Amino acid sequence: GEGRFIGCAQLLLAWFHNHFWKVGKVSYRAFSESYSPLKEIVATSMRDDISEEKWMTIFQNLQEKDIEWGAPWLLPDEILYRCGDVDWVPFLGIWGAVGYAPLLVLRQYRSRQFVPATQGLAECEFSYKDDGYKKKAREMANAWNLTRRMKRLAVGPMTTPEYSEWWVRRINDNISGPSSEDSQSIEEHLRVVPSELEIIKQDFERRNAELEKKIEQMEEEKMNLRLDVDVQKLEADKLRKGKNKAEEELDSLKTNYKKLRLSMITDGLGKTSEQWREEIQEERNKSDRWERKFQEVQTRNEALEKSLSESQKEKGELNDRVVELEGSLHQYRSRNSVIELKASLSKIDEMKSKIEGLEAALRNCEGWIEHLEAKEGR
Questions:
Q1: Which residues contact 263 (CB under 8 A, 6 or more apart)?
Q2: pLDDT per residue over 33-57, tens digit each?
Q3: Pure H helices in 150-194
Q4: What sign does the CA torsion over 183, 185, 190, 194 have?
Q5: Which of 156, 265, 273, 302 is buried most deeply by CB count within 10 Å?
Q6: Chain-centre distance of CA 377, in angstroms?
Q7: Rounded-to-integer distance, Cα 82 and Cα 322, Å
C-alpha cells in the first residue's frame, strides 16, 4: 500500500507474460495437458537487462487494450467468490492468513467487472503471532463450510460505468456494501452479461452493418469515379481539339509568314539599312512639320479662346446694362401709373359729385311729379 511490492517476483513476471500477450505479439494459447504456461516461463531465459526506469516507462505507457484480462489457465468454469458471509475468500498459510477477492478480477474470468463490496477485507490479513489468531483462523476454516459459486460466462472484457468511474478515481480503500434501496446481488450483476452466442451475433450484426455501409460508400465512390472518368474524357477531348486547332493556327501563321516574306522580297520591301534610315528621317521631318502646324493651330485656338472670353465678358456687361435699363423703365412706368391713377381718381370724384347732383335733381323731379299728380287727382 506504500508503493512497495511484497510477493513472488517470478509469479508476477509469469502474470505479465500471460496477460501482456498483446504487447509481446505472441499467439494466445490456452492451458491444456500438453501446455503449461508456468513450465514455459521456467524454460524461458529471464532478461536482466531491463532497468527500473524502463519498467516505469512500460507501465506508464501501458493501455488497457494492451492487456488480455484473462489468464490462459482459466478455463470456462465456476467462480468461487464467497466464503461464509463475506464476498471474498480467506487463505490460511504457514505464517498467517490473507483475504482474496475474486470479484475484483472478474475480467480475468471474462465476466462483467463491477465494483464489489470489500469492506472488512483488510482485517482478514493477520499473522499467527498476533493476539487472537487462533479464533480468527477457526472462523476462516468454518467459513469454508459455506461457499458460493457462480457460473463463469465466456464473454469479452466488460465493465460497468460505476467501475470505470471508480477505476479513474483510483479509490484505494475498502468499499462499503450497497444500500438496501439499490442493492443488487452478484447473480443479478452477472445475469445481465450476454452469452457468448449473443455477443457473437451482435458483433456479426454490427460488422455486417458496417460492411453494408462501406459497400454503399464504395458504390457511391465508384459512381463518382465513373463520373470523374467521363469528365476527364471530355476534358481530354476538349484539350485534344484545342491542341489540333492550335497546331492548325500555327501552320497557318507559318504559311502567312512565308507569304509575307515572299511579298516583301517581290515588292521591293527588302530595302537596305541606309534606305530605311533615309525613309525614317523623312518621316521624322514630316512629323516635325505636322507638329509645327499643330502648335500654330493651337496658338490660334488660344487667341480665339481669349477673344471669345472677352466677348463673353462684354456680353455679360451688356446684359447687366439691359437689366439696369429694364429696372429704370419699370420705375418710370410705375411713376406714370401713379399719376394716371390720381387723375382717374379725381375724375371719379367729379363724376360722383355730378351723379349725386343728378340724383338730387331726379328726386326733385319725382317730387314735383308726385305733387302734380296729386293736384290732378283733386
A1: 269
A2: 676 767 777 777 766 777 888 878 8
A3: 161-169, 186-191
A4: negative
A5: 156
A6: 129
A7: 132
- The three cell numbers of residue 241 are 481539339
Indicate whether this model's pTM tops 0.85.
Answer: no
Cell numbers 500477450 correspond to 21
Burial class from Cβ neighbours inside 10 Å (0-12, 13-18, 19+) for residue 113 reads buried
Q: How far apart are CA 15 and CA 41, in angstroms?
A: 10
Grid look-up 506508464 returns 60
Give the span between the Cα atoms of 146 and 85, in whole angstroms. 8
Q: What is the DSSP letter of 95?
A: S
**How many angstroms separate the CA atoms of 209 and 225, rounded?**
24
Q: Which residue has the cell 520591301?
A: 269
116 φ/ψ angles, rounded to the nearest 5 degrees: -85, 165
| pLDDT tens track for 343-378 | 778 888 788 888 888 878 787 787 777 777 676 665
Smallest Cα–Cα separation from 114: which of 153, 191, 166?
166
Angstrom distance (rounded) from CA 361 to CA 348: 20
* Cell numbers representing residue 107 in the block: 475480467
> Domain residues of the chain, as ranges?
1-68, 76-193, 196-269
Q: Tell me how far apart the alpha carbons of residues 30 and 11 are, in angstroms, rounded to a whole number.
A: 18
Residue 2, helix vs strand vs coil: coil
pLDDT of residue 271: 61
